Amino acid sequence: MLSFALRRLLLAVPTLLFISLVIFLLLEASPGDPLGDVPLTVPPEVKERMREALGLGQAWYVRYALWLKQFFWVEPLYWFDRVFGTGFSQGMQRIISFQSRSPVFDVIAERLPQTLTVVGLSYLVGVMIALPIGIVSAYRQYSWFDQIGTFVSMVGFSLPTFFTGVVFIIVFGIKLQWFPSIYDTTHRVTDWDSFLVQLRQMAMPVAVLALYNAAQISRFMRASMLDNLRQDYVRTARAKGLSERVVVLKHVLRNSLIPVVTVIALGLPAVFGGAIITEQVFKVNGLGQLLILAIHANDMPMVMTLTFIFAVLIVSFTLIADLLYGVLDPRIRYD
Amino acid sequence: MKLRSLMPGAAATAALAAAMAPAAFAERGSDGQVNVIMWQAPSTMNPYLSAGTKDIIAGSVVLEPLASFTPEGEVVPRLAAEIPSVENGGISEDLKTVIWKLQPGIKWSDGTPFTADDVAFTAEYCMNPQGGCAQLAKFEGVEKVEAVDELTVRVTFVSPRPDPFSAFVGAQSPILQKAQFQNCLGEAAPTCTEQNFNPIGTGAFVVREFRTNDVISFAANPEYRDPAKPAFATLLMKGGGDAAAAARAVLETGEFDYAWNTQLSPDVIAGMEAAGKGKNAAAFGSLVERIHVNLTDPSSSLPEGERSTIKHPHPILTDPAVRKALSMAIDRQLLTEIGYGPAGQPTCNLVPAPAAWASENTECLTQDIEAAKALLDEAGWTVGAGGIREKDGKRLTLLFQTSVNAVRQDFQALIKQWWSEIGVETELKVVDPSVFFGGDAGSPDTFQKFYADVEMYANNFEGSNPEPYLARQTCDKAPGPENQWQGENTSRYCDPEYDRLIGEMTQIVDPAERGAMGRRLNEMLTRDSNAIIPLVYRGTTSAVSNALGGVKLNAWDSELWNVADWHRVK
């Protein structure tokens, strides 16, 4: 197991380097210009100066090497300095966003809490709803509960969040005025009342995303339960005279959870990636909104850094899922 | 420049008068918080590092210039004691130096005095060649800026300047505090994140917290020169979402007091206004949506580097009758109604304002399909196969390009229809805005390269002096390989007489004469040659809550130019 993990970790290094190069080249090849939004009233000579100030005058491989150095050397040094109060990164240029001219990682750090609370919570809520629905749906296959569950998950699957989000805003935000339609990122939870305010403003985005996540996971759970319910060991357990409760919740559920856990683990990087559309609809302004804005503005350092962090997360969560699989299922051994 | 509230005039005046009265007695910070939503979120507070309107607006809450433009396009003093002129001795006889006298007693929000040194430093900051200053054009032709004494600044120009109000005038070039920014010159400019996000200013508010592309919290500036202002204790500027959601937050849910740039289709706005929580207001600056006619041949059979250059005149569009017919066939009234509603006016002018410069050029406002047909017949273009006109084996077929934008695509479809009625076949093309306006010399799809026969976009000028704007339509400003396709004379209009008049204009000082010359130049480009076919004079629109008073929408300067006067209407 350990050697497997080490081998995979080592292999991840060239994979990630390759991914970073591909992302960089894709961004390089894509049309568009970081100064595309600059008004036409700004003369071309001034634009040229601005372009040079952004470092765009150099060849692509120079800029790529610079980014690598900044990402893998300057940024870690900077954070090391922050923690230990040392001064190794003095005078070194961190990765700077084209849009705001501020360090990319500071902006990401500022955005992470919003994304984790809203998107993370919705994932948690989604999982908590999905598992019981999946279990009951499978155990009582084709019952009315299963039919409703299937219907709800189909709705969750097929309705895009930009639609459900706007419907929620119109119904609960404008008509009923129960919830605010705009998320206040400056809100601080200090007491019971401010906590309620926070709950109110999170209610709609969390609900929209939870519906979407729950739909997917409940289908996995149901399918996996159905597979296991038909197994011989279930019949044996029943024949032994075990109660239905023990049969379903102990024997079947445990075995069915194995693939579901991997699915959940694989979905976790998406939590960090933020929910691009939902964040935009409710103005949560987390990482998803940051990415989409950066893409629109052709903010190369920001897009590059964000997508690369997502790549790192995906690669590491895949590894975690693989290892979890081994831990949960004793039949699987990585030797 | 007209400020047009969408309320009926009398009601608006009454409401304004009622709203102004309590403001006079209010004290600083007595009105709580005002919420502003900017659907394009501000990225920085320093307008010298970003030319984006959203960032300039955010910066204008804190940073102030020496003088501002009013909604009518006039220059009014702000940090300056008066506007320099030849009469008051502020502008020298040879028009090469300008003396700005500063208002005494002004303090930065940190309590230190505001002096002429700060003004001179600001010029040094922007004119530094390594800084990549986005507002460098404001300082064009400035030789030096010196602090004569504590409260006097002298600006020296390389050549005479009849209209010197570019540097330090308007929200694009406000004054930075020397003490705060002195280590941020040149290459260090972008690394000064702390300074760029939290500039110390003289304006009505100070930054309390800045989150880039998300939200900015402001608090009333304790050192602001008028002790009774601002009426609001705090200002929250939230970013994100889209124009419709922003308008909804003001007009329907009432969560916000002011939404910037709510350019939406007129029926959508009308539906939202029906909720009775606020109004969409419009202000007009100099933005004109127009069609540029390519006077050079964009044909793909020409070698790269010669397409759309002066070397090869356009086979069809060099015929003035065709250009005139194209203009006559367009119903500008209908375009305006469909695309912009009250936020637009049909126009035949490239320079629609200020009043002294706006030509009485209204001939094109009535569509005349029959006359257009007759004109083409007369010029020898006869109707051929499929109803398309032809002459000497050349068919009247045009490629019409523009950027991706719902209103522009509606316009394209309508214009295509009208042109087909006069026997002109039109092929439509749309380009992503970041490519179209990106100016990448390697791309064939930029508006400057103009590998099409006609194209549509909007442009405006900053400040209230259209001279530099008109000067960009001379022969040598035509984009081509020799200037990396960067010129702004996209029509490739080239008339020696025009160039001569532009040269003459730099010598004229008298405002009335300048206006007359400007009108003449504008007519040469539009009515006389139809090299540029203006369509709609576009306003900027913003949604204002009924609970917010004191808003005077301004298209010549930052929309928040008078945020100090904003107050709560109870």
Which key phrases capture this entry?
heterodimer; A: 335 residues; mainly alpha; MetI-like fold; 2 domains; B: Dipeptide-binding Protein, domain 1; Dipeptide-binding Protein, domain 3; 15 helices
Describe this structure in words.
Chain B: Keywords: Signal, Transport. Chain B: InterPro entries: Peptide/Ni-bd, SBP_5, SBP_5_dom. Chain B: This is Peptide ABC transporter substrate-binding protein. Chain B: Belongs to the bacterial solute-binding protein 5 family. Chain B: One of its GO terms (biological process) is peptide transport. The complex is a heterodimer of chains A (335) and B (570). With 335 residues, chain A is an all-alpha fold. Chain A folds into 2 domains: 63 residues, no CATH class; 226 residues, MetI-like fold, CATH 1.10.3720. Chain A has 12 helices and no strands. In chain A, helix 4 crosses helix 7. The model of chain A has no long low-confidence stretch (mean pLDDT 87). Chain B is of the alpha+beta class. Chain B has 3 domains: 133 residues, D-Maltodextrin-Binding Protein, domain 2; 127 residues, Alpha-Beta Complex (Dipeptide-binding Protein, domain 1), CATH 3.90.76.10; 255 residues, Roll (Dipeptide-binding Protein, domain 3). Chain B is 25% helix and 21% strand. The N terminus of chain B is likely disordered. Chains A and B meet through helix 2, helix 4, helix 6 and helix 11 of A and helix 5, strand 10, helix 6 and helix 12 of B.
